[in-house]
Amino acid sequence: MTDVRGNEAGPLTGAHRDTVRRSGRRSRVVDLAGRAPRPAPEPDEAVRRHAAFLDRVTAYLCADARIGQFVDWGCPVPGIDGIVRAHRPGARLVHVSPPGVAGTLTASDGAAVSGDGGPSAVLHRLATSGLVDLDEPVAVLMTRSFTADAPPGGIAALHGLLRGGGYLALASAAPRPVLLRALAPFHPVEPGAADLAWWPYPDEDVAARGTGVLGALGRAPAQQGGGRRWRR
After folding, report:
1. Other Cβ atoms within 10 Å of 208 Cβ, number
2. Which entry of 20, 82, 149, 152 is 20 to 30 Å from 182 by CA?
C-alpha cells in the first residue's frame, strides 16, 4: 500500500482537526471529536461528515498527488465543485448525471455526461467526449455508499481507461474486505479503508464512534507510454 502520509507523499494537506490525547496514557489513540459522539449521526450530520471526508481526499489529491481532473460519479453531498476548487481553483470537474438525464449537459460550473446505459456507456462517454484528458491523471469520486450485494460496476474497465493513471475513491457500509475487493485493481493507499469520520487515520488509532461507513482511496499507475508520470 502507498501511505498518503509517508515521507515521499508529504503531509496530507488540508486535513485539519483538533486532537485531544488521553491523559495519563502513552497511546497513539486520538479523540477526533473532543466530546462523546452521537450513537448514530443525524442525516445532516452524516452529510457533513461525508463532505469532510471528500474535503480531505481532494486536499490530498490536489496538493500531494497533483491531480487537476476530477470525475464526480455519484458523490452524495452537494457542492462538490466548491470542495474540489477550494484546493485547486482551476481543476477540471466532470459530473456523471443520474440515469434518465440524456445527453451531455452543463452542470454547476463543470460539465456532465449522462449516466444512462450503465458503467460501460458512461466510460465510453468519458473516453470520447473530450471532457477529460485520459493521458493525464484523473481522480474519480464514486463515494455513494454501496452494500455487499450491490458493489459498483465497471471498476476494472475504469482502471484500464486511465492511461495517465489516477485515483478512485469509494465508500461503503459493507465490511472492510468487501470495500477493498470492490476497489481492485486499484491499489489501496494507506490506511486501506477507514471510517469516513477520521480517514486517513486507521480505525485502531481513533477513540470515537464512527459513522459506520468506510472510505478508501485507490491508485492506478500511469500505463507505459500513456501520459507523463506524476509525483505520488
Report:
1. 16
2. 82
Single-letter amino acid code for the residue at 3 = D
Beta bridge partners of 120: none
pLDDT tens readout for residues 23-76 = 444 344 455 555 455 565 566 889 999 999 999 999 999 999 999 999 999 899
Residues near 201 by Cβ (< 8 Å), separated by ≥ 6? Answer: 30, 32, 191, 194
3-state secondary structure at position 105: strand
**Which residues, other chains included, contact 16 with Cβ-Cβ below 8 Å and sequence gap of 6+?**
none
CA 75-83-196 angle, 5° bins: 55
Return the residue matching grid coordinates 515521499: 8
Euclidean distance between CA atoms 222 and 194, whole angstroms:
26
Residue 112 contacts residue 180 (beta carbons within 8 Å): no
Task: State the amino acid at position 131 in one-letter form.
Answer: L
pLDDT at 176 over 90: yes
Angle at 75 between CA 144 and CA 200, to 5 degrees: 80
- For residue 37, how many other CB atoms are within 10 A of its CB? 16
Q: Cα Rg for the chain, rounded, in angstroms?
A: 17
How far is 117 from 191, CA to CA, in rounded Å? 34
Torsion, Cα 172 175 176 177, to 10 degrees, reads: -110
